[in-house]
Write a structure and sequence with these properties.
InterPro entries: FANCG (IPR039684), TPR-like_helical_dom_sf (IPR011990). The protein is an all-alpha fold. The chain is built from 21 helices and no strands. The C terminus is likely disordered.
Length: 468
């Protein structure tokens, strides 16, 4: 039977409880194909009056228990389908039953995702824990903690989130949200300790699967991260770097590189989630990004030999691109940023190890490859993007080091030439006040932030080579 014929059948048989269940199940299981047609069918037929007078098939009542359960089940399926479509859900009074509890929770999720934190918390507050399974209770606590954090109640949020983690191992990702709250409070030590706990706890034995209606439906809305430990360790590494704990950052990045097979393809998974992107751990970047971050961590503690070993034969100036950079897609721009950063780090390491001639050749090749990099703000936007600033930082660093090399070589003309170019770039960079991070670089925005901070610290003279 063709899809159009099925929709016609739906319109004809809409007042049959079994037909409603069937089509709403299709809308939940295949929301991209079935969601809109099913939900846009004769909505006026959704009433509470007619169903008790209709005799549902016996098998459906055997599964649910009664015709009253059938009403709740149909309501639950429709609310679930609406949430999958991102459509608003009108709040109604639901019973404190097994089915009504899940319906109310999905409504709270919808309200949270739309930014209505107060209503979401009110809806969660009216959920009876008696009708919830333990993992469902943890979800209620987790979502409530996030809502409280967004309403500026961090301490109450911490208690809710901690309770969620203790309630069920499936709520382990809530540790990331606890770390976020500590970061907002300026408690960096506590934040890093929680992230470290997340990495270590994630290596334990996972909770076994549960078979129930609650979790069968929730599984349609939420896909648990399959690489939770690696994502947590990546985020921890970046936060350690940002807090200038370079040795610890290097150790965590080494562990990641040892575990992650080389893969420079961009995987941007889009699993369904009950949470918003900002509430979940950043996804893993490509192997090349991890190499650059690890090299930066080693360079920051004057471990130049390790940095050189990490970067050997990984990057070439051919990959740095050209003038189309400012119009490329985020993935292509990121490849250029990473290639340029890797090349300049490799040249820095050579210079630090006394291989001046090889370093000089690499810096000359870099200068030629970066001919297209222009001043920040020239790309047309009112506020500079961080990737734009990073490329100017790299070009500035190349000029600065070339001026130093020519000074040592006694080439006065070249020394003054590159000194002037470096100063012009530094003047542009120093005029910047607040950098607006470009959201289009997600999931690599965190890596860009770290790369930006490394070069900023280097140009500002903050990297002293001491272990912190």
């Amino acid at each position: 039977m063709e899809f159009s014929e099925l929709i016609n059948l739906l319109k004809l048989e809409w007042k049959c409880g079994a037909a409603q269940v069937l089509f709403l199940l299709c809308a939940n299981l295949m929301p991209d194909d079935w969601g809109q047609p099913v939900l846009q069918a004769d909505v006026s037929a959704w009433t509470w009056e007619w169903l008790p007078n209709v005799a549902p098939p016996p098998w459906l009542l055997d599964v649910l228990g009664s015709s009253e359960d059938l009403i709740e089940f149909i309501t639950l399926l429709r609310v679930s389908a609406l949430l999958l479509q991102g459509a608003p859900i009108s709040q109604k009074e639901w019973k404190d039953s097994y089915l009504g509890t899940l319906t109310r929770f999905l409504c709270a999720v919808s309200q949270y995702q739309q930014g209505d934190y107060s209503r979401s918390l009110d809806t969660l507050h009216n959920i009876s824990y008696i009708a919830c399974e333990r993992r469902m209770q943890a979800w209620v606590l987790h979502l409530g903690g996030l809502g409280l954090a967004n309403l500026g109640k961090p301490h109450t949020a911490l208690m809710k989130l901690q309770d969620a983690v203790e309630r069920s191992p499936a709520s382990l990702p809530a540790l990331y949200n606890i770390a976020q709250v500590f970061q907002s409070l300026g408690e960096q030590r506590a934040e890093l300790e929680v992230l470290d706990l997340l990495v270590k706890s994630g290596r334990g034995k996972p909770e076994g699967p549960q078979v129930s209606l609650h979790f069968s439906l929730l599984a349609l809305h939420h896909t648990p991260p399959g690489n939770l430990i690696s994502r947590a360790q990546y985020y921890l590494s970046c936060r350690l770097f940002q807090e200038k704990k370079y040795l610890e950052a290097a150790e965590n990045l080494k562990s990641l590189l040892d575990e992650k097979a080389p893969d420079n393809r961009y995987h941007i998974p889009t699993p369904r989630s009950l949470l918003r992107p900002k509430d979940t751990l950043p996804t893993l970047p490509t192997y090349s990004v991890l190499l650059v971050l690890a090299a930066m961590a080693h360079m920051s503690i004057a471990s130049h030999q390790h940095a050189l070993r990490i970067l050997s034969h990984q990057f070439t100036t051919k990959a740095i691109g050209g003038s189309t950079f400012y119009h490329d897609c985020p993935e292509d721009r990121m490849k250029v940023v990473v290639s340029a950063a890797g090349q300049v780090l490799h040249a820095q390491a050579l210079k630090a190890l006394g291989q001046e001639t090889e370093a000089f050749k690499e810096f000359i090749r870099l200068e030629q490859a970066l001919w297209w990099v222009r001043g920040v703000g020239d790309s047309g936007g009112d506020s500079p993007e961080k990737w734009e600033t990073v490329m100017l930082q790299i070009k500035t660093l190349v000029y600065k080091i070339l001026s130093e090399i020519h000074k040592v070589r006694g080439s006065s003309q070249n020394y003054h030439h590159y000194t002037r170019l470096a100063k012009q770039c530094l003047d542009v960079l120093h005029k910047l006040q607040d950098i607006v991070s470009g959201q289009d670089l997600c999931p690599d925005q965190l890596a860009v932030d770290v790369i930006y901070e490394y070069f900023k610290n280097f140009l500002d003279g903050d990297l002293t080579g001491k272990i912190k």
